[in-house]
Every structure is written in structure tokens, then in C-alpha cells.
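Hey, can you fold this one?
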Amino acid sequence: MGGEEKFRLRTIAELEAACALKDWNPPHFLDTAEMASAVATGYDWLYETLTPEQRAMCERAIIEKALKPAKAIFDKNSGWSKPGNNWSQVCGSGIALAAAAVAGKDDGLAFPAPEPRTQHS
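Sure. Predicted structure:
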């Protein structure tokens, strides 16, 4: 971002604006996926310079406005979660970026805990 403070501050302002939205328009999930991708990218780029409150803001928004609505679609095996057109790739990649950004901070929503191994005798 050029290393100038004005760019960092503008990015934070954009993150704050995106996170303050009521939702990321899940009825048109391409919008949700693009916002998830943008917030996840900004969060990752600026992570070291964000305050704990700003990090939490981004994490909450990603979880509530992207991952939970995506899970609802996956659970129903509907819409873009099934192959058929470019929505699958666009939405899936946006949600994947968002999930990777908050992995470990989402109570297993992004990456569920692995099943316990059983021992074979």
C-alpha cells in the first residue's frame, strides 16, 4: 500500500464502513463473497497495525455477515454451493479467504475440528 500512513488509515476507514453495514446482501451472495474477500484481505494486510478492537470488529463481521450465511447455504446444499456456474468459484473463494482469515477465532465455523481418531486393534 505504499507504506504511507494515509493509505493505512484509509484502509481502516473502509474496513470500518464495511463492517458497520447491516449485512453484506446475502440474497445476492456474490456481494457477500466480495465483501468477505475485501474485509479478509484488509484484515490480513493490516493485522499487525490494527487495535484489538479493530481486529475483533473485522472478525465479528466476517463470521456474522459471511461465514454464517455461507454455512446456511452449504447446509441446504443449495444455490452457489453446488457446481453449475461461476458463482461457485467466486462465492467459494471469497468464503475461503474469509474462513482462513478468522480460523481459530470462530468456534470451529471456518474449519471444524477434525473427527477423533479411533484406534484399530
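The two ends are 57 Å apart (CA to CA). Let me know if you want another pass with a different chain boundary.
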